[in-house]
């Protein structure tokens, strides 16, 4: 009996031991599966929310990167440089080699630009009396949203304007008009009308009389000195994980928008939270993989959005949402990639990539644009047409050194009935009386600029004419 009991005990012990082994194995399997699930969730959330965060943050990060690269001496051959709260003045009328970092630059105006920081105190902008000459300064915050100082909004008499940050409280000096900005940092891009080379000196004198001064160094009529240069390495963060580090750093400083509270809660779920540290080096491997994929795909989405054709009017693509984006973060990012812009009421940029047959426009073809006498673009300012290489949106050298054509072009020939015909091709036309706009040899994009467009344009009561491709 004792022997039988011992056998049963041994069997029971073996069963218990086996069960423990099985339970241990099951626990290990469960733990392993849990780890896999956690990693799957973590990577997927980082990827999906990170992609949305990339689209949302693109202008914020792009502008922060450009601000660093243009307010520090990052290379010996750097064209655009000015310290924070100072202006860089482009020294020439823009041509094929003088556009700097500008994308699809115009040939109608002289450019001047600068990066502002009003985190500590307001910035005063002085503008001269331009005697009704067109000028504008686009004040762009880090959300890529714009307001304007200039002829249309503030007139052309001499003025002082004070940019004030979201947390500033105080009183500006007498005679200084307050311009509140939503972000402490941002970009100033100015344009001054220039009527060709013969008008350059007069236009540049006005540009040189536009200057910036922080409130503590401001004295009316006295332009402050330029601070010493600062050297630094160039920053390139659009295509790597540092993108999210820059976004997080700016997110901590940007005032929360009530309508975006739910979106910010999503960003917090992947570590992009205000007032909490964010360091890609401390992320799990799964989260790093997800964010790395988000950067890669996010960049491709922005590029695709910038190349996407929008609903057109007679073949002209016209966006009337530049500078005011609401929740359309993809459009905001695509505009930032293309070079930012003015509000529609300041200037419109109808663009064309395809000819009437749906083919990419090409310099070996001959195109015409015909305006009836009573169908000239209705603008309070002026209009012009320019052609850029499709590959990089830059001007291409031509024998006339003509990089735009419009209502101010010298020697423009109107037809007997008052209509106007423009001819677009790469080679010089046989007829010397042709209103010729030389275009790049390969594929190109057309950009029409309508400065201070009238209500008929803004409300689509006026449409630009269709482009015609001629047989040759």
From TrEMBL:
Domain (DUF1254): residue spans on this chain: 84-211
Cited SUPFAM superfamilies: VPA0735-like
Superkingdom of origin organism: Bacteria
DUF1214 domain mapped to chain residues: 346-454
Entries under InterPro entries matching the protein: DUF1214, DUF1214_C_sf, DUF1254, DUF1254_sf
Protein name as annotated: DUF1254 domain-containing protein
Organism expressing this protein natively: Pseudohalioglobus lutimaris
């Amino acid at each position: 009996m004792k022997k039988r009991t011992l056998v049963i005990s041994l069997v029971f012990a073996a069963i218990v031991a086996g069960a423990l082994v099985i339970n241990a194995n099951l626990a290990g399997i469960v733990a392993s599966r849990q780890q896999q699930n956690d990693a799957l969730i973590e990577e997927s959330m980082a990827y999906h929310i990170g992609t949305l965060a990339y689209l949302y943050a693109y202008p914020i990060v792009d502008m922060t990167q450009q601000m660093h690269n243009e307010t520090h001496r990052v290379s010996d051959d750097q064209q655009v440089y000015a310290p924070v709260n100072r202006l860089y003045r482009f020294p020439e009328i823009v041509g094929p080699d003088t556009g700097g970092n500008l994308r699809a630059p115009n040939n109608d105006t002289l450019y001047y630009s600068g990066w502002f920081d009003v985190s500590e105190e307001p910035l005063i902008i002085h503008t001269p009396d331009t005697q009704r000459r067109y000028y504008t300064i686009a004040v762009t915050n880090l959300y890529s949203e714009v307001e304007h100082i200039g002829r249309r909004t503030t007139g052309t008499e001499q003025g002082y304007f004070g940019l004030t940050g979201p947390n500033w409280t105080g009183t500006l000096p007498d005679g200084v008009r307050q311009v509140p900005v939503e972000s402490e940092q941002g970009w100033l891009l100015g344009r001054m009308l220039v009527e060709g080379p013969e008008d350059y000196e007069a236009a540049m004198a006005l540009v040189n009389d536009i200057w910036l001064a922080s409130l503590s160094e401001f004295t009316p009529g006295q332009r402050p000195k330029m601070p010493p240069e600062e050297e630094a390495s160039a920053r390139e963060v659009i295509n790597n994980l540092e993108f999210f580090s820059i976004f997080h750093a700016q997110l901590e400083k940007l005032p929360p928008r009530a309508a975006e509270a739910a979106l910010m809660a999503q960003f917090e779920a992947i570590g992009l939270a205000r007032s909490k540290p964010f360091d890609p080096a401390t992320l799990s491997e799964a989260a790093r993989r997800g964010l790395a994929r988000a950067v890669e795909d996010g960049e491709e989405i922005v590029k695709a959005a910038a190349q996407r054709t929008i609903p057109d009017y007679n073949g002209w693509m016209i966006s009337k949402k530049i500078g005011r984006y609401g929740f359309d973060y993809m459009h905001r990012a695509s505009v930032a990639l293309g070079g930012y812009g003015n509000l529609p009421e300041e200037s419109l940029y109808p663009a064309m990539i395809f000819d009437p047959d749906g083919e990419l426009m090409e310099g070996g073809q001959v195109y015409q644009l015909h305006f009836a006498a009573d169908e000239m673009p209705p603008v309070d300012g002026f209009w012009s047409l320019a052609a850029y290489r499709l590959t990089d949106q830059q001007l291409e050298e031509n024998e006339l050194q003509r990089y735009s054509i419009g209502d101010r072009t010298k020697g423009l020939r109107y037809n007997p009935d008052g209509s106007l015909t423009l001819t677009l091709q790469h080679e010089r036309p046989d007829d010397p009386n042709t209103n010729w706009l030389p275009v790049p040899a390969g594929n190109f994009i057309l950009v029409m600029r309508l400065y201070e467009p009238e209500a008929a344009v803004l409300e689509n009561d006026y449409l630009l004419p269709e482009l015609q491709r001629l047989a040759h």
